[in-house]
Write a structure and sequence with these properties.
The chain has nine helices and no strands. The protein has about 325 residues and is mostly helical. The longest helix has about 130 residues. It starts with a helix and ends with a helix. The relative contact order is 0.06. About 15% of the residues have low confidence.
Length: about 325
């Protein structure tokens, strides 16, 4: 009996020991399994974090590049806007200059028409006048207002060779001589009006030399200066700058003779204005301004005064 009980006790002991060993083995197996799963999960999380960090870095780089591109675009836009403003300003300035030049050309054309009509009217009157009327010396042109009586131009105009003295009756001619005087002037002026300056200059000079007291003498002398100015422009167009300069300088001298010999004549303001134009073409701007101011001071009521004021303002800019 006792032996049987001892055998049963030993069996129960072995069974309990087996259970304990099996539980420990199961526990170890469970821990191993769980340990392997945690390791895999940790590796996956590490990879995800690394990828996320890489994405964040790339995003930061893209943001920086976008900011740089935005700044460059802003600078380009500002530069384009500034260039557009400068171009608009230059275009406005050019438009103003073109308008001023067009207005001046229109005024000069209108004045040329008036002068042509006046000469044509004088020519018709002289042709229609009877011989007895032609023997009477024509009346002198009306004197300008007191302020227009110009003294010697001073240091601006060099002394011109005075016209040879002639008797007071030099302008009085017989009927044949009167007709010849007018015809010679008209012939010389016709060449000038047609642009035949080389033919007009000697004829006009001869007219001034023979009839210095004629009421048309100052017109003939002024036409000599304008003829040289026309020759100078033709030479410049033909590519002869040196010749053009010499002819322009000669035109200045011829215009100054008008004021020196006929200071009360109707062509004095015209000669001053044309001289200023010639001086401008010679790049003598300061001297041109002096002549224009002289014109405005002494001939304020002349037809050239408004033109002189505008040209003086243009030269002062």
């Amino acid at each position: 009996m006792c032996r049987t009980q001892r055998m049963q006790g030993a069996a129960r002991s072995r069974g309990m020991e087996g259970l304990r060993r099996g539980g420990v083995a199961l526990l170890l197996l469970t821990v191993g399994v769980m340990g392997g799963g945690c390791a895999d999960l940790s590796d996956s999380l590490s990879q995800d974090v690394a990828q996320l960090q890489q994405d964040v870095s790339q995003l930061k780089l893209n943001v920086q590049r976008g900011r740089v591109d935005s700044d460059a675009l802003g600078r380009l836009e500002r530069t384009s806007r500034e260039q557009g403003t400068e171009s608009a300003r230059q275009m406005a300035g050019l438009s103003t200059r073109v308008e001023n030049l067009s207005a001046e050309v229109s005024r000069l054309a209108a004045r040329l028409d008036q002068v042509s009509q006046r000469l044509e009217a004088q020519s018709r009157e002289l042709r229609a006048a009877p011989p007895s009327a032609r023997r009477v010396e024509p009346a002198a042109p009306p004197s300008p207002p007191p302020t227009a009586v110009a003294p010697s131009p001073g240091p601006v105009a060099p002394p011109a060779t005075p016209a040879p003295s002639r008797p007071a009756t030099a302008g009085v001619a017989s009927s044949g001589e009167g007709a010849t005087l007018e015809e010679r002037y008209q012939a010389a002026y016709l060449n000038f009006s047609k642009g035949h300056y080389a033919l007009a200059i000697p004829a006009l000079r001869d007219y001034v030399r023979q009839f210095p007291d004629s009421p048309l003498a100052d017109s003939a002398q002024c036409a000599v200066g304008e003829s040289y100015l026309g020759l100078a422009r033709a030479s410049a167009t033909a590519g002869q700058p040196e010749k053009a300069k010499q002819e322009t300088e000669q035109a200045v001298q011829e215009f100054r003779k008008v004021l020196a010999n006929y200071p009360r004549g109707s062509k004095a303001p015209t000669a001053l204005y044309k001289e200023a134009i010639a001086l401008t073409e010679l790049q003598q701007t300061a001297l041109a301004q002096v002549r224009l101011r002289y014109l405005l001071d002494h001939f304020p009521q002349s037809e050239e005064a408004p033109l002189a004021k505008e040209r003086l303002a243009a030269l002062s800019r």
